[in-house]
């Protein structure tokens, strides 16, 4: 759905983006991560055909940004990081206005507006003035707006920025719903955990260069060379820690909160002998599970020494 080759944008001597290569298939959710000024917006604006690159190629669903921008605009929904809303419009009027701009006419228009409102959970605000909405609601309205023409590809620039934790979670839920609808999504953020459980691919951009471009699973594999376990017993944790620490399958172990966190030596990927040792030593084992690595830990390990 998206193919980018050697994409570069220069402002004078500054490379806003430099030699970006990327391919996304239908249904991919690409988390585009990078600090402020790294080049995320530039990349998205070029894909949205709002900005010309200095050189390089980009295609959306096979359409070139140079020769078929109209076709691309029909397929994409681009939500910029900052967008204006019109002061004296009600929510439903705002959507109808944009639906008209997309040439959605007749009774269909109202139906579509109502259904996107429902999707972003704003039906109860349909008669409210757009200026009265909270930032989280405004972001959801912005999403509703880019969904009006049922685009296959969504380019979402920092949809969760400036939101409180609750509103962030709502946006995440919404993105999951869109993912389940089969949309191809490029979503940017400068905060990685925000995207952790939504995307299947991630790209990390630093000073205009895509320094990491991979699928989430292989990031996890790359980082997870050794198995890490979380262990809990219903009796004496200190004596259980002693058993774990001295077990030949364990490289290191420590007490972390209510659990013991144990890292196994590299060759061991079966914790059953350790479990047997704990039970054999008379401990009442209540939990022994593989610690779930999160994308944030993976990110830190992956970019160690690359990003500053
Ligand atoms: N019109 C412009 N003229 C000159 N420099 C620009 C222009 N637009 C962007 N830049 C520069 O290009 C670089 C990339 O900017 P871009 O907006 O793509 O970053 P970003 O990753 O989206 O950052 P943010 O998270 O702050 O939106 C920055 O150094 C920025 O200052």
Topology:
Elements: E1 2-11, E2 14-24, E3 29-33, H1 40-47, E4 55-60, E5 63-64, H2 69-75, E6 76-79, H3 91-101, H4 106-119, H5 135-147, E7 153-156, H6 165-180, E8 184-189, E9 201-206, E10 209-215, H7 216-223, E11 228-233, H8 237-246, E12 250-256, E13 259-264, H9 272-280, E14 285-290, H10 295-302
Helix pairs in contact: 3-4, 4-5, 5-6, 7-10
Write up this protein.
- It is a single chain.
- This protein has 308 residues and is of the alpha/beta class.
- It folds into 2 domains: 2-215, Rossmann fold, CATH 3.40.50.300; 225-292, Alpha-Beta Plaits (2-Layer Sandwich).
- Helix content is 34%, strand content 28%.
- The protein is built from 10 helices and 14 strands.
- It has helices at residues 40-47, 69-75, 91-101, 106-119, 135-147, 165-180, 216-223, 237-246, 272-280, 295-302, and strands at 2-11, 14-24, 29-33, 55-60, 63-64, 76-79, 153-156, 184-189, 201-206, 209-215, 228-233, 250-256, 259-264, 285-290.
- A 6-stranded mixed sheet has the order 6-7-8-3-9-10, sandwiched between helices.
- Helix 7 (216-223) packs across helix 10 (295-302).
- The two termini are 32 Å apart.
- The mean pLDDT is 89.
- Bound molecules: adenosine-5'-triphosphate (ATP).
- Adenosine-5'-triphosphate is lined by residues 11, 14, 16, 34, 36-42, 81, 190.
- Adenosine-5'-triphosphate (ATP) binds at residues 11, 14, 16, 34, 36-42, 81, 190.
